[in-house]
Amino acid sequence: MDIEKVLENLRKRNYVASYFETKEEAACHIASQVHGKSVGFGDSLTLISMDMYEKLKADPTNDVHSPNHPPEGRGFNDEAKVCLTTDIFLTSVNAMTDGGMLVNIDSTGNRAAGSLFGHEKVYFVAGVNKICPDLESAIDRAKNYAAPKNSARHGYPTPCVLGEERCYDCSSPDRICNALIVHYKRMKYTEAEVVLIGENLGL
């Protein structure tokens, strides 16, 4: 895989693009840039594995929010709404193409909404295992690999968990594939950085 080419393609799509060999280096990079800001998170095993919430929370000048860490008396949905109003938003992707397109499947819409509009800056953080050769294979990865594994992680009895690990285009009330977002290029008026990490991270 030609990482420099991937980074070049991301920059052609108007992203800031950076690469780090390890998740620790990537976490330090992000933490060094976020100071005195309100920060919101989308659900992400990649960011959890980086202890990104804890690292940003350790800076007393930051106001950090995550649906995975709601304060007492506030549930997932309410905290997710707060995350949509922050200066900075951090999320990952289910897949990306080596040409620089980003793909996410969302259940409640908080990750998708947070990545599209309203923040000063969005960080898309992903391991190199998310890179696919084209958009078709990236969507296939999101639908037939990441979504079933995320459904299983949350304990949802969807067909992709109970049956073969693939998309059934189901009508389950626990379905998490309710929106498919393809970022062809950086959204206008929002700075966005794709942080690539030379490890297999997340789903």
The name of the CATH superfamily reads: NagB/RpiA/CoA transferase-like
Count of strand segments? 10
Q: Beta-sheet strand percentage? A: 15-25%
- SSE run: HEHEHHEHEEEHEEHHEE
Arithmetic mean pLDDT: 97
Number of helices: 8
Question: In CATH terms, what is the fold-level topology?
Answer: Rossmann fold
Global Rg: 16 Å
**Low-confidence runs:** none
The CATH first-level class comes to Alpha Beta
At CATH level 2, the architecture is: 3-Layer(aba) Sandwich
**Globular, elongated, flat, extended or rod-shaped: what is the shape?**
globular
> Helix coverage percent of residues?
25-40%
Count of the separate structural domains: 1
End-to-end C-alpha gap: 19 Å
**SSE-based structural type:** alpha/beta
- Widest β-sheet, arrangement of strands: 1-10-7-4-2-3
**Main pleated-sheet profile:** 6 strands, parallel
Strand and helix layout:
Layout: H1 3-12, E1 16-20, H2 23-33, E2 38-41, H3 45-49, H4 52-57, E3 63-65, H5 76-83, E4 88-91, E5 95-97, E6 102-106, H6 110-116, E7 121-127, E8 131-132, H7 135-153, H8 159-162, E9 179-183, E10 191-197
Parallel strand pairs: 1-10, 2-3, 2-4, 4-7, 5-8, 7-10
Antiparallel strand pairs: 5-6, 6-9
